[in-house]
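Hello K.,

You asked for the raw outputs rather than the summary table, so here they are, unedited. I folded two proteins back to back in the same session to keep the settings identical. This is the first:
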Amino acid sequence: MPTRVHEFAWPDRVVIGTIGLPGARTFYLQVRTGAQIVSIALEKQQSALLAEKIDEILDQLITLDGNPFSVPTGTPRELVDNDPIEPPLEQFRTGAMTLDWDPTTAQIVVEAYPLTDVDADENDERLVEGGTNETEMMLVRMPVGTARAFAKRTREIVGAGRPICPLCGYPMDADGHDCTLPEV
């Protein structure tokens, strides 16, 4: 079964963005190079963990003698991207992701695979147009500055959700909050 790979070697844009109101947002990893744009849906927790792990890798690389990959300690000003995500949305919903470092190109490498239905019969295969069997994946290679900017924006997007109740610690909805204090 052929795999359709959405590959971005030196993307113009790599961002996490959302559609919807806090509490009902859908998170997207969106990558664009020229006219090629792919958006994949993912969970808020996947977004947060991806940013955390990217920063961990970059912080470890900074400690190498002489910082040979020129990893920035902060987000380069020229790489700040606060623009909303662009259509089209959701090529697929993300399941498994991998994160790696490629020292030959000094890039963070992210691979994202579609969520699979573990309850599906092994003989059932998804048919795509034309009657061929196909799966998808996204492969993104980010230079260190882009990766640092990506992680910063992702932390900001994840943190912009519903406010936390100071009494019970659960998220508060815009239409009200039924606060139940823990018993002492």
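The second followed immediately with the same parameters:
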Amino acid sequence: MVNLPGQWMADQQQAGHRLCVMLEGSNAAREPMMAVRAVAESCTLYAHTPLAEMAPSGPVILLLDQGAEPALLDLLDTPEMHWGWLCSLPTADLAGVARHWRDRLLVGSPGSQSLYRVHDNRTLARTLAYLPGQHWPAFLGPMISVCYWHEKHWYISNNPAPGEYPVPEPVPWLNVPNPNAGAILHANILRYLLAEHSEALVALVEFQDPKVWLTQVLEQARVWHWKRPDQLEFLVVRRLEEATRSSVIRWQPVAGEAPADHFERVVQQWRLMEKEG
């Protein structure tokens, strides 16, 4: 059986490239691997960013001198732990790759930014599988090649044009679909209902499985193209009221009605019903 990471590392070194590992901050190998490296051979990814307070326990980028380092071999033996990924650079200078990823760490408008998990091999794999080749250079930047684990296999992806690139606008890799998005949304809505509408949720449990009920409601939202948070909240909360009280809303869209118009009409109907008692 071919040792793909080992062969990749040998090929990259033979080509004169430097090896690196992007290592997840909570992995047990983080501190031991940093301890045996000079300052210039490691870089804490969150340093010099708005996430600086998290830098001591956040992901790191480490130069690798050789592929037989015991801690590295342990990582390669446990790829299912999702500890990060390997990459190659043209030089031993980590400044360029650190600057590249720091520019891509936070996404969204100031005040409502979220963290882009560049250190996660699953994020890397999904992005490279989704992005057309012309967007790879802006995503991978100075990295020449990457080696990563995804769904029980090792993969290698080569950057067609390594170099320094600004973050494009719009950012193409932020459109990568998350296969777990549905489950995450489902869980978050149930948490919200438990916190804000617990009595109605408890009443629902007496005659229906909340998970099955919510799946049906979210399918209705999908069919009607109600995607905004306010649309989902209205639909879920009002449907919960219907299921546990006597209120009834005429939900079905009128023929030819646009999703936004459909939503506004139903909201107005509900407000009128509330006003009338």
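The two ends are 72 Å apart (CA to CA).

Happy to rerun anything if the numbers look odd on your end.

Regards,
P.
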